[in-house]
Amino acid sequence: MKLIIQIALGILLAYAVMGLGFLAFTAYVEHEAKMQIQEALMEVKAQQAIQLRNIKLSKQEKIEKRKQEIIAEQNRKQRAIKKAEDDKLKQEAWLKIYKPRPDCETYTSDEHMVECVEYRSEQRRKFEAAYRKLNIN
Asked: Superkingdom of this entry's organism (predicted)?
């Protein structure tokens, strides 16, 4: 009888050791799973933070690019206005300075017309050269 009790206690002790071993193994596996989940969550959060930062940078870059486009367009318009004003002043100066030859009011022949046109062209070239000199200085 004593042997039966010893065998039974041995079996119970073996089951207890196996149960405790199983509980320890289960706790270890659970701990490892939790650690992997936490690492994965941290990685996902880091990815989201990077994406959010990239989106913000992208929006800022778009805003900055649009500002630069607006500034460039304003500068282009100002240059066009300035050029139109300069061209108008130059044309007014030309009209004040240029005096056609009296005999060129009515053409008498084709050769006479060519002479008058050449005279006007020559006067215009001289005017343009003088005007450039005045505007450079």
From this structure: Bacteria
Q: Where are the domains of the chain?
A: 2-97, 99-137
Sole residue written with tokens 């009296």 = 102
CA distances from 137 to 7, 96, 131 (A): 120, 22, 10
Quick: pLDDT tens for 67-96: 999 999 999 999 999 999 999 999 999 999
Residue of 128, 118, 134 whose CA lies nearest to 97:
128
DSSP string of 84-128, one letter each residue? HHHHHHHHHHHHHH----GGGSS--SHHHHHHHHHHHHHHHHHHH
C-alpha 64, offset from chain centre: 7
In contact, 121 and 98? CB cutoff 8 Å: no
